[in-house]
Structure to design on (96 residues):
């Protein structure tokens, strides 16, 4: 399984981006995405203010066996956003 970063590395990189006034970090949680179909995955999406398209970092991600394990790696002070009906079916939730 492609585990990606450790929990601590993931939190550190997400929090580093959150400290910038020019960046908004969104963490999206997926259930069995096509590229890692046997895991739950959290990916950091970096929205740079003044840029038209968000950037999903291929390097800032974690993959775990359970949803609870993925949630444990997300910074505790991030706000959970429930999925919307128009979201991709693999999206479980997002955090901002």
């Amino acid at each position: 399984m492609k585990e990606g970063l450790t929990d601590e590395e993931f939190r550190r990189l997400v929090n580093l981006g959150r400290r910038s006034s020019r960046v908004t970090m969104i963490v999206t949680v997926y259930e069995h995405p096509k590229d890692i179909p046997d895991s739950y995955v959290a990916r950091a999406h970096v929205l740079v203010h003044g840029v038209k398209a968000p950037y999903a970092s291929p390097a800032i991600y974690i993959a775990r066996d359970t949803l609870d394990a993925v949630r444990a790696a997300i910074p505790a002070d991030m706000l959970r956003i429930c999925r919307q009906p128009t979201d991709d079916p693999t999206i479980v939730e997002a955090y901002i």
